């Protein structure tokens, strides 16, 4: 077994305004952030996450597992919830294999990301579609030189 890392993270964004971060600048680097997750346009947000990262096979294979809960403001409060994102649970799994030898620089990644609504409130369908209750599967072949 290789090295591993276990993290428990918390993020609180005040309700005095919303966090703005243009997508052109890339992904915000909060400790609580996971793949396919953004906090842009949200104020009064509370998020917690658990992340586990393990390396195998002489550090050629890494597996990252993550789970988080994000509590967002009221859906109708556009001042703090710009995109009308309901509170949700987020789960990710990333497997990354780094090839060696002739294929050095080639990575094969499998990413599974799921967002499920937090059922503590009744959510109209217009706030569910393309926001929560979805799973994203990605097979990524990446070459770095």
Report on this structure:
The chain is an all-beta fold and 145 residues long. It has one domain (4-143). Helix content is 0%, strand content 46%. It has strands at residues 4-13, 45-56, 61-71, 88-98, 106-117, 134-143. Strands 1-2-3-4-5-6 form a 6-stranded antiparallel sheet, with no helix packed on it. The radius of gyration is 17 Å and the shape is elongated. The mean pLDDT is 89.
Task: Sum up the overall morphology in one term.
Answer: elongated
What fraction, in percent, of the residue positions are helical?
under 10%
Number of separate domains: 1
Strand content: over 45%
> Sheet bearing the most strands, described?
6 strands, antiparallel
Classify the secondary structure makeup into a structural class.
Answer: mainly beta
Unreliable parts:
none
Number of strands: 6
Summed over residues and divided by their number, the pLDDT gives a mean of 89
| Arrangement of strands in the largest sheet | 1-2-3-4-5-6
The quaternary structure here is single chain
- How large is the radius of gyration? 17 Å
Ends distance:
28 Å
Number of helices: 0
- What is the string of helix and strand elements? EEEEEE
